[in-house]
Write a structure and sequence with these properties.
Number of helices: 2
Largest sheet: 2 strands, antiparallel
Radius of gyration: 14 Å
Helix content: over 70%
Number of domains: 1
Distance between the termini: 14 Å
């Protein structure tokens, strides 16, 4: 796999993660890890981080 393909795959994976986290926020889905409830604000941070990483992956894919 070359770097361009890797950047594309990474962008797609992070975009999916961002969309799922945004759906969790909008739908109010609960998240529990090891019997500890995860607050919704954590998903907002995940949306921003995953969205940025997806953007950078697509940006790097198109540069090369």
């Amino acid at each position: 796999m070359n770097q361009k393909t890797y950047n594309l795959y990474a962008g797609v994976i992070f975009a999916v993660i961002a969309v799922v986290q945004l759906m969790r926020v909008m739908q109010g889905w609960p998240a529990v890890v090891n019997d500890v409830p995860i607050p919704v604000w954590v998903s907002w941070i995940a949306v921003l981080l995953a969205g940025f990483m997806a953007y950078r992956g697509f940006q790097l894919h198109s540069k090369r």
